Amino acid sequence: MEEALRFVAELDRFAGIERRYVVKKEGVTDPSYGKSPTSRTIDELLKYGVVNLDKPPGPTSHEVVAWVKNLLRVPKAGHGGTLEPC
Q1: pLDDT in tens, 44-69
Q2: 15-50 pLDDT, tens digit each
Q3: Residues 35, 20: one domain?
Q4: Is the pLDDT of residue 86 over 60?
Q5: Secondary structure (3-state) at 33
Q6: Are residues 32 and 45 in the same domain?
Q7: Pairwise CA distance, residues 49 & 38, whole Å
Q8: CA–CA gap between residue 28 and residue 68 (Å, rounded)
Q9: Quick check: 59 and 52 in contact, CB under 8 A?
Q10: Per the confidence metrics, is the pTM higher than 0.90?
């Protein structure tokens, strides 16, 4: 199993999801274009990473971004799209 698929499978296990993956073709990526998330340092994950969260009703999107910045101790954070519940 290639490294990226192992990473996704590990996320599934963490989330308690059971799935079966079928790999039709494995590709080769030039390492000068980046690296697998499992190979990144904590600093790289914080600098280039994405936090997926399910915002509960109540706090504003702005408040949640402020909490993320405070929890992760990062100078900049933002959100793409709306964080408001449907």
Answers
A1: 888 888 888 888 788 888 898 999 99
A2: 889 888 887 877 777 888 878 777 888 888 888 888
A3: yes
A4: no
A5: helix
A6: no
A7: 12
A8: 35
A9: no
A10: no
Domain extent at residue 7? 1-39
Dig out the tokens for 9 from the structure.
């499978």
With cut-offs at 50, 70 and 90, classify the pLDDT of residue 85.
low
Would you say 57 and 85 are in contact if contact means Cβ atoms under 8 Å apart? yes
Residue position matching structure tokens 């340092």: 41
Whether 35 and 48 map to the same domain: the answer is no
Residues 37 and 11: their CA atoms lie apart, in Å, by: 12
- Domain count across the chain: 2
Same domain, 32 and 48: no
